Amino acid sequence: MFAATPSLRAGYPGFFRRSMDELKRQAKFAVKMEGLHIPIKPFPLIKFDEPLSPERCKMMCDSDVGGFSRASLTYVPGAAHVERTAGEGSDIKKGGVIVNAPAHEGEEPSHAVFAGSISTELPPNRPQIQRSGYAGFRTRDRGMSLFGKLLWDLSPYSYLALRIKSDGRKYFVNFQTESIVPTDLHQHLLPSYSPGEWETVTIPFSALVRTNYGQVVEPQKEMMSTKVRSVGISLIDRVPGPFELKIADIYATNRPPERKAGQEETGFDLSFEPEDEDAGRGMMDEIEPRRKKGEPERILI
């Protein structure tokens, strides 16, 4: 017997199935000329609607390098998810949404629980680590197909939407793309206007902030939305104690937010100042040494 590939273990289809799905997607795009109009359907990035859904995500925690934080992502069954396009029912706003099935309105949707505890205790006998206390997850790479590496093209969409139930802590949404600087992320504070209740929050893609190892970098470049590798959520407030965030769906849409997110709500200080050369980045220094002053950015060739 052959061992299962990582993508199969993570609940993704095999190589030929991925290739056929990509062929169907491209053929549908061409036949319907979808590039000529604004999409009215939501574009799911991940839906936690089945038991295998959490396996499509990769967990990250300081315990991986000796820290004492703990984190898990577990599936909880609930109401089915349905995609609603603009104009359906009483919904006349532009852009699609993902909601509970009509027969289960008001119930808790099937979802994943991102939970654990944060500890800022430093690992013993590792003096090079000066900071600790983070946890997060991101979607796994979707693998290869006959058409090359599978990436998301989010350029037809203006917003990211997340259906969540937050505990009110300071979470961040993170995007990774096929950037020429492989350690770049585009991030934004995950808004929560009703902690303890289910809500759909929306972030404009134009509001994402380019960072490198958690630091705002210049020049600020728009995210390469045609080649998106993964989306994830992290907790990096370094406040010790338990946390719990419930996530039902993460999707792209053209439906504008109910309330505007101002620049001050990105979660970053955008008044750029060079960081202290002597300040340690904690465990990030374990992954890759800091770029020295005057040294060019490391790029992916």
TrEMBL record:
One of its GO terms (biological process) is mitochondrial electron transport, NADH to ubiquinone. GO terms for cellular component: mitochondrion. Residues 47-247 form the NADH:ubiquinone oxidoreductase intermediate-associated protein domain. Keywords: Chaperone, Mitochondrion. It is found in: Mitochondrion. Residues 256-301 are annotated as: Disordered. GO terms for molecular function: unfolded protein binding. Residues 279-301 have a biased composition (Basic and acidic residues). It holds the Pfam family CIA30. Belongs to the CIA30 family. This is Complex I intermediate-associated protein 30.
